[in-house]
Design goal:
The chain is an alpha/beta fold and 233 residues long. Helices cover 42% and strands 20% of the residues. The chain is built from nine helices and eleven strands. It has a five-stranded parallel β-sheet, sandwiched between helices. Strand 4, helix 4 (88-96) and strand 5 (101-104) form a beta-alpha-beta unit.
């Protein structure tokens, strides 16, 4: 699974150095030179994690972090803040703003990669783990197999990808438009009703292996779909 990381830093040398080390570790890097450009690229590319420098002109990393946390589609996006400020109060401010981690400058490439991998393991386990499990549901990325209640569930490619997205982030509500972008591709014109059709097929396939007509997928009115967390099926 390819992992996309967006880096925003107004220092060209620092930006290129981070991109080089992340690419060397197998990540796909998207580079932004300021907060405004980063926001546009996040909307266009849906990265799996973002690294934001605190001190950027016009829109700082802190301001961008606040903006991302205020939006439903990026509310749970993993964020790392970079800063030359190393006081505890500065770290607290960065984390209180909504960042998941805070790295003080200067830092080594090894530390950056370690922090990125640690955050991905915590927030996006599906990007690191080959097998996702949620109650009676089990999904293997390498074998492309899904089981429910220890029984194989036959799914088409679109249904498999939809389930993967839901299992990777249980409880997160995916809008129909977001699912279209992630499964069918950004900019591809497909009616939102198509998502409902494939989601119906997914639910039918899972329920066919259930003993009590269990359905782990929740439909959110005017919102989209999510995987149940308050009652793990």
């Amino acid at each position: 699974m390819e992992i996309k990381i967006l880096i925003a830093d107004d220092e060209p040398n620092q930006l290129e150095l981070m991109a080089f080390n992340l690419k060397s570790s197998g990540f796909i890097c998207i580079k932004a030179r300021n907060g405004e450009e980063a926001l546009e690229l996040i909307e266009e590319n849906s990265p799996d994690l973002v690294i934001l420098d605190w001190m950027m002109p016009n829109m700082s990393g802190i301001d961008l972090c606040r903006s991302l946390r205020s939006r439903a589609e990026t509310k749970q996006l993993p964020i790392i803040i970079l800063s030359a400020r190393s006081e505890d109060s500065d770290k607290s401010l960065g984390l209180d703003t909504g960042a998941d981690d805070y790295i003080s400058k200067p830092f080594s490439p090894k530390e950056l990669i370690s922090r990125v991998n640690a955050l991905l393991r915590r927030s996006r386990p599906g990007l690191i783990n080959e097998v996702l499990e949620h109650g009676k549901l089990k999904l293997s990325l390498t074998e492309m197999i899904v089981t429910f209640n220890n029984k194989n569930v036959k799914l088409g490619p679109k249904e498999f990808k939809l389930l993967y997205l839901l299992m990777e982030r249980p409880g997160h509500v995916f809008s129909r438009s977001k699912l279209l972008d992630l499964v069918w591709g950004h900019g591809v014109y497909v009616e939102e009703r198509t998502v409902d059709v494939h989601m119906s097929r997914l639910r039918k396939a899972i329920k066919s292996k259930s003993e009590n007509n269990e359905d782990p997928i929740r439909t959110v009115r005017d919102g989209g779909y999510s995987l149940l967390t308050n009652k793990i099926i």
